[in-house]
């Protein structure tokens, strides 16, 4: 579900509510089967500009097949790890009642999950870094409105600097 056009918006208070709506639907089939449902990515950081897409990590304890079946029962489609080991992606159809979202399932000890949570929490606690990251995202979206790869590449130096500050050395 990669969009061709790169659209970055100022933070929207509705994103938190939209995450809760998606989480609520997920819990109808995942309750008791998972550790947590984490709102990650830029929409999870109050005040941070973001592409209007909710990123969600479903945290499990080595029961992927059970969780996969439950997600499939409500219309999610397993897409594999998309090149990131231990993070299983799910697409969907017929979810127009929910905001556009990316859904991933990770074991609780997954490195990518750890990065998502650490980065999110650091930005939530460090306004100056959050604002700097917002600026580069807006700048790159303006510079590369139809080139997601260049947009991502342009943000990378700032992301790596923030990774160092929060102890995530790649």
Automatic annotation (TrEMBL):
Domain of life from the UniProt record: Bacteria
Pfam families in UniProt: GrpB
InterPro entries for this protein: GrpB/CoaE, NT_sf
Protein name: GrpB family protein
Species assigned in the record: Clostridium omnivorum
Lineage of the organism: Bacteria, Bacillati, Bacillota, Clostridia, Eubacteriales
């Amino acid at each position: 579900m990669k969009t061709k056009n790169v659209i970055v918006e100022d933070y929207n208070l509705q994103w938190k509510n939209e995450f809760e709506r998606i989480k609520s639907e997920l819990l109808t089939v995942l309750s008791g089967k998972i550790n947590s449902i984490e709102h990650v990515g830029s929409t999870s950081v109050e005040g941070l500009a973001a592409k209007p897409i909710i990123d969600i990590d479903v945290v499990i304890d080595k029961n992927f097949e059970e969780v996969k079946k439950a997600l499939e029962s409500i219309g999610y489609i397993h897409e594999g790890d998309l090149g990131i080991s231990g993070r299983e992606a799910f697409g969907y159809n017929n979810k127009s009642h929910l905001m556009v979202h990316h859904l991933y399932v990770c074991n609780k000890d997954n490195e990518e999950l750890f990065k998502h949570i650490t980065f999110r929490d650091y930005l939530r606690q460090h306004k100056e870094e959050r604002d700097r990251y917002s600026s580069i995202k807006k700048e790159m979206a303006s510079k590369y409105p139809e080139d997601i790869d260049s947009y991502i590449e342009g943000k990378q130096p700032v992301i790596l600097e923030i990774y160092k500050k929060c102890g995530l050395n790649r």
